[in-house]
Structures are given as C-alpha cells and as structure tokens.
Specification:
single chain, Nucleotidyltransferase, domain 5, 5-stranded mixed sheet, two-stranded antiparallel sheet, 5 helices, about 30% helix, disordered N terminus
Length: about 220
C-alpha cells in the first residue's frame, strides 16, 4: 500500500510564484526545471529487453525523499526494444506520482540516453520513442517540480531486478502453457518445465504442479 505525505503549503513569495510559473510554462524541447519540494518522491527506474528487440519489461522502485520505500512497479511489455522499456518505466513512475497526488518527482536512471533526452541534451530520433517521449514530457508538465539524474548501474539493482522478474515470470507462464513434448520412446510422456533458481531453490511458474514420485532432470542455463 502506498504511503502519502501531506502537500507542502504553497509559498506566497514572489520568488516561489516566479519559479512555479517558469516550470509550468517550460517549452516542450527544453529541459525540466530541477526544483523539488520537501515532500518529493524518488523513483529508481530501469527497463530491459532480451534480444533488443526481444522480451522486454520495466521495474520501478518508489521511495520518499528520505529514502524509505513506498512501492514498487513492474510490467512485461512483450517484444520491444531496451529504450522502449526504459521510457515505459519513466512513464510508469510519472503516472504513479500523478495517480497518488504527488507534485514533485526525482527520477534516477542508469540510462544515459534517456536522461539526456529528457533534459533536452539529445534529440529523440527513433519514431517509436518519439510518442513515448511526448507522453513523458506531457506528464512532467503536470508536476510542480521534476528532476532526472543519471546513476551507475550498480546503484539501480533493485529496479533492474524488478524488470528482469517481470520478463522471467511472463516467459515462464508462456512456456508453461505450451503443449508438453512427448517422449520418442514408448512409455510415459515427458513434460518440459522451466524455472528460475533463487536462493538455491527452483521456482516454477505459478500454477505448475509436479506429481508425487516424478523423476526430474535439471539442465542449468544462464
């Protein structure tokens, strides 16, 4: 369940009002103004694709300004590119802030391309990304304050884990729904089921059951 913080009272000072007008009137090609309120959210975002394009997903870790985790988001995106997944994570974070009535957001991403494009330092040349870029910019304009920062990959491991988990779970469900492959020789049918090892335990797709006494062969693959 997401935590909510009381909104900070708007200052009546001329300086505060000028900054507010400046942010809301920011032109589309420009970079967002980086001025955050005391109750801002922090979103670690990551996206990935296996094959680029390939099975893709994103992960988002939501924290308050003090670093306390509030929520986490992840979603499988089907077959997409890595950059598509990165932008999808950004949009998910922005929509979360809007949905939960937060007006200030700081985004941390290990995608230098996304960060520089949002700041206006790089152009968005990919047609599929231009639509996502426009949507992200529109959501940013709804905020009172927004900041985006590039961080090393090792500081974004939790969001990366969520993105990979979304891809793993979707691929495992897909394989579990595939017809079993019969054995070539006479006898009992052979069923192939894939799982993921976590903490030394093989996790099978949700809803998968193995009959008592079944013989299991494990093939390790990275």
């Amino acid at each position: 369940m997401a935590l909510r913080f009381p909104r900070a009272k708007k200052s009546t000072s001329r300086r505060s009002n000028d900054a507010q007008r400046s942010f809301n009137s920011q032109e589309f090609p420009g970079a967002p103004i980086e001025q955050l309120r005391d109750d801002y959210l922090v979103a670690h975002i990551d996206g990935g694709a296996r094959g680029n394009p390939g099975p893709a997903g994103y992960g988002v870790v939501i924290e308050d300004h003090a670093g306390r985790r509030i929520d986490q988001l992840s979603q499988f995106l089907g077959v997409q590119t890595n950059n598509y997944a990165e932008y999808s994570g950004l949009i998910a974070a922005l929509e979360y802030a809007r949905r939960n009535h937060f007006r200030s957001l700081k985004v941390l991403s290990d995608s230098e391309l996304l960060v520089k494009q949002i700041k206006g330092e790089y152009k968005v040349r990919s047609a599929p990304l231009q639509e996502l870029y426009a949507k992200a910019r529109a959501l940013i304009r709804e905020l009172d304050a927004f900041a985006v920062q590039h961080i090393p990959r090792e500081q974004n491991r939790e969001a990366d884990h969520l993105a990979n988990l979304a891809m793993d779970n979707a691929m495992m469900r897909s394989r579990a729904q595939s017809p079993a492959v019969p054995a070539k020789a006479a006898g009992n049918a052979v069923r192939y089921v894939e799982g993921v090892v976590r903490g030394g335990v093989v996790e099978l797709p949700e809803g998968t059951t193995l009959p008592e006494g079944a013989r299991v062969t494990i093939t390790l693959r990275r």
